[in-house]
Amino acid sequence: MVAVPQPAGSVVVAALHGRDDGTAGTCAPGVLPAGPPLDRLAVALPCDLGGPSSRLLVVGPPGDDVLRLLDADGVLLEERPMDDGVAMVAPPGRLATVQVRTADGRILLARTPAPLALGD
After folding, report:
1. Is the model's pLDDT at 19 over the cut of 80?
2. Is 10 exposed, middle or buried (0-12, 13-18, 19+ CB in 10 A)?
């Protein structure tokens, strides 16, 4: 993932991902409003795998992080370790909240960027 801070405090994010068969896909680029510094930010990007299945790329601070997927009632749907702050998952149908639990026990709410508005 690439995260580019803007002068007003927002952050432009984008990502590419590779698959086991050697092909690549894209994750929706977007803009996050001003907020936490990059080293304390968790981001969830929807990704296109070129088929009917979508994936969610979640990136948090590097370290021994845990990904937590919750429904609208706060019920834990899935919890899994992240690989140095990165996870790619198939989002469960009732997904409402994505959290990252950091190695020091903090819970970060993963932010989903607003789509980029591309001009002429």
Report:
1. no
2. middle
